Each structure stands twice: as C-alpha cells, then as structure tokens.
Amino acid sequence: MNIINLLHLKGIKLITPRFRFQKATLINVNVNTNTVKPPEDSQNVVEPNFPSINTSTFGTNSMQPSNAYFQPKIIEEVSSENKIESSEYIESTSKLYAFKDSLPFDLMPGPQSIKMLAKLWNFFPLASRYEESIQKLVGADNIFGYLSWYNSLPLFKRMINEYGPLVRLHGPFGGNVVILLRLEDAMTLIKSEGLFPIRSCIDSLEQYRLQYRKYKQAGPFLTCGPEWKKMRNVVEGLLCDYVDNQFKVIDEASNEFINRILHIRNKQDEVLSSFYNEINKWSLECICSILLNKRFGFLESAGINFSSEPARILDSVKEVVTAIHRCEFGIHFWKIVETPGWKNLVKYCDVLDTIFNKYVHKAQDSLRHKKNSNDNLTVQNISFLESLLLKEEISSEDSLTLLLDMVIIGSTAVTHAVAFLLYHLARYTNAQRKLYEEIKKTSAKLTRQDLSNMPYLQACLKESLRLKQPIPILNRVLPENSLIHNYQVPKNTHVLIPTQLYSLKEEYFEDSLKFKPDRWLYDDLELSNFKLSALSFGCGSKSCFAQALAEMQLGTLVVQILRKFRVAYQYGEINSTNQMLAAPDRPLRFSFIDRD
Ligand code: HEM
Q1: What three-state secondary structure class fits 478?
Q2: How confident is the model over 336-380, as pLDDT tens digits?
Q3: Is 493 exposed, middle or buried (0-12, 13-18, 19+ CB in 10 A)?
Q4: What values do phi and psi take at 103, rounded to 5?
C-alpha cells in the first residue's frame, strides 16, 4: 500500500494554510469591490488582482505611487456582531491596482534548483486528488515549516547575499514561500494585511484541537477570521484590567524565586544546569496565578513533588513544546501515521487540557455561586478566567484554548526572555552596575509605577529582547493577490518575516551585536511610525497582546534579583536556537552572588 492510499484510507483531512485561507475568505465574501474608473488619460496598465504593497520608498508611509488610482472595497453586508466601521475597513484594505512596472512572480529571485524540481513535478501524470495530497504533505507548507523550526538565520543571511532582499522558494510539490529579508517590506505588508491576518505555524497543535479534540476554534494563536478578532478584543480589554491588579502576585512569585535560588545554588553560588526549569516554574506560577487567581506553588522552596499538579503542568508544557517541534520540523509524517512526536503531543496536551478544563468547570461553579449570593462581579472579586466566562461572545471551550495558549506559548516566551536578560546582564557588567544604581533608588516596597519610572530597566528589557527574540520568525499567509516590492505575489503564498534578522542589522542598530541598553534611552527608535522596540512582540493586529504583562513580569523579577544578588556567568556564549519558539542553546549556569 502506498502512502497516498494510506492517507486516503485513514480519511485524514489535512489542515493546511489553504484551509485557513478558505476560512478567512468566507468572511470576506460579504465584501464587494466597487471599481473606480481610472482617469481617462491614465497610461497605467491595470492589474486588478494585485493590491499594492510597494515598499520602494524607505521611511515613508505612502503606499500610493503617483500614477495610481484607488479601487476601494466597500462593505455591503456584515453581520452585526462582526460589524466594523466601513471607513476603517476601507482604509485598511484600500489598495492600488495600477502598476505599469510590476513584475511577474516568476521573476522574483530564488534558488533555481528547487524551481527546477517544481517544474519537473508538473510532468508527473497524477490524478488531482493525489497531487493535492502530496502537496499538502510536502508542498510549500513543508519548506515553510522547515524554515520556521530550523535555526534559519544564517541561511537567511546567505540568501540576502545571493538573491537580494526578497527571496522566492518554489515548493517543490506546489505552493510558494517568500522570505522578506527587509524590515521595510515586512512593515508595509503588515500595514496592508487587512482585518484578519492569517498566521500559519503549528499545524500539529491545530490538528490536535480541531480534529482530535473537536473544538470549534484552535485558540487565539492559531485561529484567524472574525472568531479570532472577537476573542482577541475580549482578551485585550481584560488584560488591561487585570495586569495592574496582578502586580502583587508577580512580586510575590519573584520573591519566592529568590528563595528558590538561595535554596538551589551551590557553595560557589552557582545554580545547576536545570536552572531553565526554575525560570519556567516562575513564569508558570505568574501566568497560572493571574489567570486563575490561585497560587499553585511551583516555587516551593524545597521543590515540587513530581506527581503534584504543578509538576504535571511544568512537565507537560515542556513536552508539548518539544513535541510541537518534532512534528513541525521536517516532513509532516504525523499527518499520515501516528509518529512518536504526534503521540507525545496528544499525551501531554491531554494532561494540560484535562487540568485546565477542571479549572474552567470550577470557575463556572464559582460564578454561579457568586451570582446566587449577589456578589459584586468586579475585577477585584473574580478571576481572569471568570471574567472571560462572563463574556457572552466567548464560549467556555474558547476560554480553555485561550488559557492553554497563554500557558504554553506565553510562559515559554517569558522564560526564554528572562534567561537571556540574566545572561546579558551577567556578560555586560557595566550595564548590570548601572541598572543596580537605578534599582537602589527605588523604595523597598516595589510598585508597578516604580517600574515605569526606571528608564534604564526599560532600556535593558528592550535591548535584551532585541538581541534574542523568543519568537524570532513571524509568518503570514497572503489572503489575496498582492504586490510585494513590485512583484505580483499570488494569494495563498506563505510569507516569512524574520524579525530577529532585522533587529541584528547594522542598518538599524549600530554595533548591532552588542548589548547596549543606552541606545533606547534617548531616541525613540522608529521606522515608518513603528516602534522598533515592539518588533520582538510581532507586528500588526496579530502582534502579542501580552506585551505589557510580559514587561511587568521581566521588570519585577530582574529588580528583585539584582537587589539581592550580583549575577555572573563564566561559561561559553549562550545563543538562541532561533526556531519558531526559540530557547537558549546551553545550560544557564549563572552565579548569584550576595550583595554586601
Ligand atoms: C517576552 C515575552 C513575550 C514575547 C517576546 C512574545 C512575542 C510574541 C510574538 C512575536 C507573537 C506573534 C506576533 C505576530 O505574529 O505578529 C506573539 C503572539 C502571541 N502571544 Fe506573545 N510574547 C510574549 C509573552 C506572552 C505572554 C506572557 C502571553 C500570554 C499570557 C502571550 C500570548 C500570546 C498569544 C496568545 C499570541 C497570539 C496573538 C494573536 O494571534 O492574536 N505572549 N507573542
């Protein structure tokens, strides 16, 4: 039996960006195009299907060449729940269609060898359903996955030298990938990506949630379209309400972390190579306490019992991240057979889903109880999860996947950020000294306000995140035909946005490989009205909604640590694995030396 038969026999419905694209286009079906005629004397060649993403002018906001005309899209009917101001819509989607110099996609530079393979592929006399299956298994998705989950930055640098700032990779078995190696191109793409950008990145987790668990939505990280927007609006609002209130929890967890360091460091003041785990415990304690208004005890000074709930969460988050990497990197065999990576993903996602589902039920009960006893349901009295459940537009299932995304993706990103912040401060002792001087001026009882009044602290956070980004590569799938850098790029093309590469460019940051927090002190570094400090949190409407929370977590922890200890590190350089969810590539054997 060959692979294709097996695929069909298993009745596997593959989730691909095309599927996601269809979901997104369904939403846009309501949108009609109203063509505005070009001026009589126009010499333009009209390309009606290629909205402009022209980025030839660096530093300007203009996406409109002087010889073009508008073809605005007008909302005809939009269901009330998704209603968006039409002016806003028109602004975000109005595109230019006339480019007499636009170039066909085929002319975009890229490696010829896979282009040849792509051409050869056309000679295989396969029935269309087989062809489609193969494309889904090893088409552009695969290249895309490979580049997202492989340590790709050195490869991207070589590509710039060889092909220039824009590279096209032909999926050898169908589909296309474009890599935007210039920040300006990425910014312009993001500005014009419309209301419902499409991110395509963790097919395995999506398949687990949609097909294995049969949830309606796959969680905010993986969902697109109006469902995502609805979820996102609610969470953004709630996070604003809760972040301030939760400072105390983060402060307490950070104090517990200090005690844990005192407990685990050896006689030379050094922590063990498993210190990454300890940071993970701290970030999970923060996030779980904030979401559920319950202290979990991840940071018990004597350590956690391996069969306890915190231990199971800690272990499962780590295993899920590893399993995602195993599934997403390389050919997606798990779509046909149950590979060990897929089995592990299911096993550990099951653990997390069961635990957090239990808390969803508990929160529902508690809300019922509070309602019956006419308690005030204010931010002070109910947990983040309870607030979510009160929102009619969010189902309890959506609340669950939202918690899971925040726990799995959020806590992993924060752990990585803390690891590198400590590393940079340990390596750049002058910066650590300067930060300590600033910390000494704060009162013994730290407040959130203190953090915002510490410019050097803020600069250190930005600089560390610039050098090592927890999510170093963003990706999108084009929802419609577009002009990128004057090339006509068809819809469904996968676009990779390597933000880590941009933030290491001399062009934007002098002495770009050095940790120099001072660069953020005096200039508000911006490009086309976009704050470069936010780059590590992504861009556009799908950027991270937890930036303020993450910065508060990092700031609080580092202030507490530096008040008590001087941090040192005497081993080899720690690099980032630069994968989709990056991690430090060496043990974090820091020394925490008592201050006098
Ligand atoms: C230093 C810490 C963090 C960094 C650097 C970071 C970075 C990012 C980046 C780069 C993205 C993708 C943006 C894009 O595609 O344009 C993202 C999305 C996301 N992050 Fe974070 N993140 C951090 C912390 C957190 C935390 C603490 C949470 C949750 C509590 C969180 C939850 C999410 C979610 C749910 C998304 C998907 C948003 C959407 O698609 O609407 N992140 N993050």
Answers
A1: coil
A2: 899 999 999 999 999 999 999 999 999 999 999 988 887 788 888
A3: buried
A4: -110, 145
Q: Which two tokens stand for residue 476?
A: 């999108």
Cα distances from 113 to residues 110, 169, 180, in angstroms, run 9, 10, 20
CATH number of 226-471+503-594: 1.10.630.10
Pocket of ligand 1 contains residue 495 by CB under 6 Å: no
ipTM for the whole complex: 0.99
Instruction: Give me the residue spans of the domains in the chain.
Output: 3-212, 226-471+503-594
What does the alpha-carbon distance between residue 407 and residue 175 come to, in Å, rounded to a whole number? 33
User: Which atom of ligand 1 is the closest one to the Cα of 406?
Assistant: 29
Contacts with 303 (C-beta within 8 Å, 6 or more apart), sequence order:
none
Pocket test for ligand 1, best of 249, 385, 544, 556 (most atoms within 8 A of CB): 544
Q: For the whole model, what pTM was predicted?
A: 0.83
Q: Which among 354, 343, 345 has a CA at the least distance from the CA of 322?
A: 345
CA-to-CA separations, 521 to 199, 550, 552, in angstroms, rounded:
33, 20, 18
Q: Which residues contact 365 (CB under 8 A, 6 or more apart)?
A: none
